[in-house]
From TrEMBL:
Official protein name in the record: Polysaccharide biosynthesis domain containing 1
Signal peptide range: none
Highest taxon above the source species: Eukaryota
GO cellular component: cytoplasm
Entries under InterPro entries matching the protein: PBDC1-like_dom_sf, PBDC1_metazoa/fungi, Polysacc_synth_dom
Source lineage: Eukaryota, Metazoa, Chordata, Craniata, Vertebrata
Residues spanning the membrane: none
Domain Polysaccharide biosynthesis residues, every copy: 35-159
Naturally occurring in which organism (per UniProt): Cynoglossus semilaevis
A Pfam entry, by short name: PBDC1
């Protein structure tokens, strides 16, 4: 996932301007394509850091937030049978799924910082972020699914394949 197009390529002034722009309320913008590009870059950088992390550290030992226990138990209570190894887009994006996800997500408003920010999520947890294997989800959906994947051992395949462990 290495790229020369990260925030570092903007320089100090550009990265500072991007950080400031991303901190303003959504009402300050319309449908500004530059803002969408900055959000996409921020989501991509987050995905890159996360994938590098699970590639180099056994995911079973990762703690993504200080609320991991609560997120995990609430997630598994609400989504007992969700196959998190290989998600179907409809598991997150269908109208029915959105109705199921909404109360779960809203439960973490004020608890998990930026709980509803856009984040990239892998569909198949054994594969890297690619156009075919990635969807846009909220940060709390990302945390819920990735915390479960880490605790239930699904992300261990990435760690083993990238670290040479068997």
């Amino acid at each position: 996932m290495a790229s020369d197009h990260g925030l570092g390529s903007l320089g100090v002034e550009g990265a500072t301007a991007a950080a400031h722009a991303l901190s303003l309320p959504a009402e300050a913008y319309g449908n500004d394509s530059r803002l969408e590009a900055m959000w996409a870059m921020k989501a991509y950088n987050h995905a890159e850091v996360y994938f590098n992390l699970i590639s180099s550290v056994d995911p079973k030992f990762l703690k993504l937030t200080k609320h991991d226990d609560n997120i995990y138990s609430s997630f598994r209570e609400a989504f007992k049978d969700l196959d998190i190894k290989v998600l179907n887009t409809d598991d997150v994006k269908s109208n029915e799924a959105k109705e199921r996800w909404r109360p779960f997500c809203n439960k973490f408003e004020g608890t998990v910082e930026d709980f509803n920010y856009g984040t990239l999520l892998r569909l198949d947890c054994e594969k890297d972020y690619t156009e075919e294997n990635t969807i846009f989800a909220t940060r709390i959906q990302f945390f819920a699914i990735e915390i479960a994947r880490n605790r239930e051992g699904y992300n261990t395949a990435v760690y083993k394949s990238k670290s040479g462990k068997s």
